[in-house]
Amino acid sequence: MMMNASVKKGILGLALVIPSFLILFFVVIVPIVYAIRESLIDENGSGFGLANYIRLFTEPTMRKNIIYTLNVTIVSTLLSLVISYSLAVYLRFGHGWVVKWINRLYFIPMFVPGVIATYGLITMYGNHGWLSRLLLLIGIDTFPKIIYDYNGLVLANLWFNIPFATMLLSSALAAVPNSVIESARDAGANIGQLFFRFVLPLSYKTMWVAITFIFMGVIGSFTAPFLIGANSPQVLGVAMQQVFSNYQETHTASAMAVLMFLLCSVMGYFYIRTMGKEG
Amino acid sequence: MFNKAKMSMLLILGLCLAMGLAGCGGKSATEAASASSNSSTPSTEISLYTGGSLNVKELWETLIPAFEQANPTIKVKLVYLPSGTGGQSALDRLLAAKQSGQANVDVDLYEGSLDDISKGNKNGIWAKLDTTGVPNLNNIDASVLKQVDDMAVPYRASSVVLAYNSQNVPNPPKTADELYDWIRQHPGKFAYNDPSTGGAGSSFVTTAIYNFLPAEDMNSSDPAIAQKWDQGFNLLKELGPSMYQQGVYPKKNQGTLDLLANGEVDMVPAWSDMALEQTSKQLLPDTTKLTQISPAFTGGPSYLMVPEMSTKKEAAQKLLDYVLTPEAQTIVVNKMYGYPGIKWDLMSKELQDKFASVSASYRQFNGGDLQQEIYKRWQTDVAGQ
Predict the structure, then answer these.
(1) In CATH, what number is assigned to the domain containing residue B82?
(2) By 3-state DSSP, what share of chain B in percent is helix, strand and coil, each rounded to 5?
(3) What dotted CATH number matches A59-276?
(4) Domain parsing of chain A, residue ranges
(5) Residue B73: how many CA atoms within 13 Å on its side-chain side?
(6) What is the ipTM of this complex?
(7) What is the mean pLDDT of each run of 10 residues along chain B (385 residues)?
(8) Touching check for B224 and chain A: CB below 8 Å?
(9) Residue A123 needs a FRET pair 20 to 30 A away by CA distance; which of A164, B105, B117, B224 works?
(10) How many CA atoms lie within 13 A of B305 on its CB side?
(11) Taking CB atoms and an 8 Å cutoff, what residues of chain B touch A226?
């Protein structure tokens, strides 16, 4: 009887897992295997091989695109992280009406659709945008090139990623007990020591969650770079779309997708390793 | 990446489901149609497959009721496939039906491009048209029909033209060389869109390259022609620093029109129908004017074809005949801001005057896969210079 019950339980457990496994299998694993297979078929020939990948790294345009994407992604991730961390710390330990209002307002950008936000950025920071017109009023007639440039792209990434990262970090910081901070302060710790000795270690894991999410969001972004990025070099998302729909080179596009997947899995490796620790 | 893959797979699953459901719907609809045709008034239902932007759908929603009123025995079912969602698959279906030896298809009229005609011609899926079935074919320029071997009816057209701010440009360029000089003399005041994202920029790039080549090369898809592109690409490279912000090429046809609308540039290549529509809707300032240069930018008609396997050719030809009447063409011109498919002198004087600035002829580029080669080389040579 005992055996029977545990076997039943086992079957029930399997039955419960099967649907999610099937979904995972068909919507994640099969497409990945398919994409890898596609990427190995030589675009110019018919045989299997690494030709598409070799071209990705040897064609100057494509190589520039890859370096540019990594550059934009890493810079955007670091900037977003620094700003969100400062904001979260400020919101956690600051007082007064400013904190209250920022707390209510900072996540609004998350509810604005990407295309609309991008057009908003163009209207605001464009060559003849609101900002340049305001500056003109006070006599400044030189305006840096933001839209259609690297700066605009980083700016858009900050706009999209800061609210979510701040939200994540805020919830982690909420778990830092006041007593810890207060006693450390009493013992004479300065702000730097407070942050690096107490706040950072206590929210370390969440920081990795935030980094992973920002990194993956930025590296795969399309809308903002398509509308406000430079024509060349392009980020991988835009270049992939161009190769896929305009040049109709599906195998090269697959190789780019697999490359992007590999870049993300490096990030995923660090993420899982951090999560696994003291877990 | 995981999320992306998940999302796209879910989308595909959703689409499959929707297609399955639509398939069921289609079946019951045809059953209903055959049921109604058995009743007292014998009527034929023809299916018209069309695609493109929303304005194409709106055009047909105006033309079809007018046609059905004049021909009460014919019902037209409009199958509109928004651009990028499966227009290609309708053509693929026709090709597959032909190859698998099916006797008939439910596509009775198909709207497509020159490319679609040649693709279908290879497999013989389009029916030949003549004036006994469609008397109004006489309204069309004979040379245009000859180009498509009488397999298709060009019922509307548009072309790329120069759109400019007449306040800042009192004397617009008349030739391509004058245009290039104007760009050099007015740095930052001209923009064309990334050619792979829209036809206006594509036409600017293509004509800049082929102006150095014999005229007949535009109709050839011979890869050897690509060897002769250097001069054109050098010109585009040289013009790069004189472009908007020393070489910014906005995305999509609308990207450059936006720059013209807010006054950042004074001149852009644009589709005639887009520019005319936006001027009339006040999206572009009143000072916006259009002109065609010589040699002209490219453009092209949109064609209607009757599949050889259609069982209702007679009814389909009636609709074709109606579309080619001056009355229907007036609707086409007014709704789409496009050019009529029939000869201009059959149209009203008023319309002729309205389009006088842009109705000068245009060229057609029919280079097949070479188009993609141009985009690719533009991306490395011009954008990445």
Answers:
(1) 3.40.190.10
(2) 55, 15, 30
(3) 1.10.3720.10
(4) 59-276
(5) 9
(6) 0.79
(7) 51 49 42 42 83 82 92 90 62 80 84 80 84 88 82 89 94 94 95 90 94 89 90 95 92 91 93 89 92 89 89 90 92 86 86 78 82 90 86
(8) no
(9) A164
(10) 31
(11) 251
